[in-house]
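Data availability (excerpt). The following record was deposited with the supplementary files.
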Amino acid sequence: MTIVFVHGNPETDAIWGPLVDALERDDVVRLSPPGFGAPLNDGFPATYLAYRDWLETQLSGVDEPIDLVGHDWGGGHVVNVVMHRPELVRSWASDAVGLFDPEYVWHDLAQVWQTPGEGEQLVDTMLGGTVEDRAERMAALGIPMDIATPIAAAQGPEMGRAILLLYRSARQPAMAEAGRALQNAAARPGLSLLATQDPYIGSDDLRRRAADRAGARTEVLEDLGHWWMVQDPARGAAALTGFWEKLG
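Predicted structure:
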């Protein structure tokens, strides 16, 4: 068995550290999308479909069977893969299934990133300054400083370029159109992690509806926010382990 984790924006695989420790497993692979802790080559278009294709290629080189877990845009990439190539995994888990509901509206930050000029200004502000400056910004969002610092070290112009390309490729109605294939994800057992204090993925009802369409079980993480994996790694590990144990 191999557990594969994929993180999102504006992160690196350091975000998974506390959760991996809580799982106490040695069959873990952490994949970093291009631009988010991994090099962003000039030829990589950094669209949401390009990241889907990148993840499919990465999974093809991982020992099977694979239990795939994604957070934020990593969770979006996970859902995109299981809608397109479900045979690549044994199971999947995502906290971002709601992105594919036809009524999903991008959050305010995303809408700024999707706006030419304003988006460039925002990423320059968000990813500018020293490593210490950036780490303090991440810590203010609730990420422990020992996790925020290695994330901040990887933030900069390359990540900013990836953010803008990715979010602009996913401007609505792109995600709603991609979500038309959401039922394909039901080909493999799925888990939707619903952190009730996460403001970025849509309402609870919207996330439940999308999970139902994807054939996924919903696990509610009451009172946890967007970074549930560092806020309460033990609870996150218990949710994932319980899901995997039921697979046999």
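Summary of structural features: The two ends are 12 Å apart (CA to CA).
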